[in-house]
Hints:
By secondary structure, this protein is α+β, with helices and mostly antiparallel strands. Helices cover 28% and strands 26% of the residues. It contains seven helices and twelve strands. It has helices at 5-21, 79-89, 140-163, 215-227, 231-236, 248-258, 315-323; strands spanning 50-58, 64-71, 98-99, 108-114, 117-123, 170-176, 205-206, 238-239, 261-272, 278-288, 294-307, 310-314. Strand 5 (117-123), helix 3 and strand 6 (170-176) form a beta-alpha-beta unit. It is globular, with a radius of gyration of 31 Å. 27% of the residues are buried.
Amino acid sequence: MKISIKTFFIFLALIFAFSALSGCSPLISETDQKEDTPLFPNDTSEVQPKEFMLYFQLEGENYIVPETRTLTIPESKSVEEVLIKELLSGPESNSTNIAGNINSETKIISIIGNENILFVSLSKQFLTPPEGLGAEIEDPDEYNSLVLNARKMALYSITNTVTELGNYSYVQFYIDYDNNGTGTRPTRKDMGFTGEGENQLLEPLYRNTEVVFSPANSLKNIMNSIIEKNWTKILKFTSISDKPDTKLEDAARQFELSNLSLLEYSILSSTVSLDGKSAVIVLNYTFANADGTSTTVENLSIKMYIEDGIWKCSIVSLNQMLLGEYS
């Protein structure tokens, strides 16, 4: 029996139509299909990891320093809650310069956002100092001052970490003193803000850049140490990357012998490099001469490097300032 070409194509079309209705394909078998092939290749609910900036306390100083951490935020959690929990767990960096300043037993009672304020309620363990803090201090007043300062830095660790995201401008803290699952506003004194108004309730805190250990704040720390003639502390924030053959012990002796009497200083500008690893600060300073006169140096460029997670001053710049050495 002969079949016309027209009849053949009609027959073939009927086969394809039947195959489509039955959910089968005559061109691709079930064994040819990969089980992990998504129905919609461009649609995925998997949460991608992102980099976040967390702030921890600089060891022995009333400053906080940033640490970059890559995290995956579950869809069931707010990013603020996850970051605060990371702060409670402490820094991951191997740097001895960075310390956790929140008791790891602290629990998050609640986190609620309202307009540009994040309301954070913490368990009363927050008021207990982290393990080992001030263990070497015997004087009760000195120890109490250390604890209060650490508590204040802990608040700014949380506040600066949260406001880094840009979702909120303020953080209002509550403490669950009675373990009733709610929390009440603490006094300023309880949170480390002593002095005038210390018995008032703590107000919402906003981002504080003065406590971030930036290049400018690092240099301020160094300049104040020069005024105090604390040469050992200066070495903690000195970089020898420009002169790797330098021994810090020898540099300390040279600094001490210089006996520079710094009277005042002012930072004019601070510029960080594009890669974030170095900075240049322009400085004016005045020092006393042996004959009772004074000398002012203007527009001195100071080189800073980030090492071990903190900003340090180049030994070359320190030699220029303290020893008058220009290479």
